[in-house]
Amino acid sequence: MLARVGANRSAGSALPIVQLVIAVVVSYAIAYYLFGHLTPVTAATVTLSSLGFVRDARPLRVLETAIGVTLGITLSEVILLVAGQGIWQLALAVIITLFAARFFSPAPGFAIIAASQSALVAILPVVASGPFTRSVDGLIGGVVALLLTALVPRDARRVAHADAKRMLGTFSRILERLVEELRRGDESDIGSVLDLARSTQPLMDQWRVSLDSAIGIAKISPFLRRRLPELERQNVLLGGVDLALRDLRVVTRRLLVVMRDGRPRNELADLLNGLVSAVNLLGQSLDDPLVLPLVRQNLILVAVRLDPGMLFPGSTVAEGSVVMELRPLVMDLLTATGLTPDEARAALPAL
């Protein structure tokens, strides 16, 4: 089992590995053959640090990392030039780099990468090719990393697509669980469904990071620019689903209170069952945008019923409040299909 997981992980990293190998070789070759630097260690290490295996492969992140490590190298070289090489110079280089990196970026990893490069320069023997040679190597590594992001891009679109499928599948599963619990009545366990709904934020964050990365790469890559319209549609989808997921947590909390009396709520279960179909179709729309009108039709069929007075005449305030809280959820799902907020709102019955 572990071997299979490891093999799948390695296979999934094939393109990043190819990108990293090409970037390291190109950086080294430019520094060695074009600039005459005999030991361009930092050209290779800056390239590796800038690209890495991280999910977020946005050009801006690659650029920020390259700037950070080059900053660390340059500060260390300045200290080396002014104060020479030694223990206290090493400490000074690292501490200045850490403070500078924390000033420029809130990301802890940014400071550690910059400080590691700074320490490397302070420890390694002084290069014969003169001061700031390693700073030039760092710039070479950063530029090559950025160019390779555009010319040999990672297909972050596939990662974003998989993350979107996973998030929508989880959304649908929460709705299905709520339908089951609402029909069960006194044996219902809404609390476990609420725990599931609360645990979904990391999935949403992963989807957002991978999609931002895919859009960033597509904007600068001549090979992936044609994917931008598809990615922009997915970005609209993400925005609506993110809001709808927050609404779903509110609805689930309300149902936890409503179901304390142990009575089944088949009318509410029917409403949510309609949303299950719509969310499943929303997942299909990732592969086929022509499905979106059918998603809207399913959502509108639910939306027109969201009138507490019509659905539960003479009902308790608790049941009516659930219907009221379903209204923004359905509205946000409609915006996920590409409708404007005003168009989505128009689908709801007036109160």
UniProtKB/TrEMBL annotation:
Entry keywords, A to Z: Membrane, Transmembrane, Transmembrane helix
Native source organism of the sequence: Subtercola boreus
InterPro entries: Memb_transporter_dom
Domain Integral membrane bound transporter, first and last residues per copy: 29-147
Membrane disposition: Multi-pass membrane protein
Superkingdom of the organism of origin: Bacteria
Subcellular location: Membrane
Keyword Transmembrane helix belongs to the record: yes
Protein name: Integral membrane bound transporter domain-containing protein
GO cellular component: membrane
Pfam families cross-referenced by the UniProt entry: FUSC_2 (PF13515)
TM helices/strands, residue ranges: 12-31, 87-104, 111-132
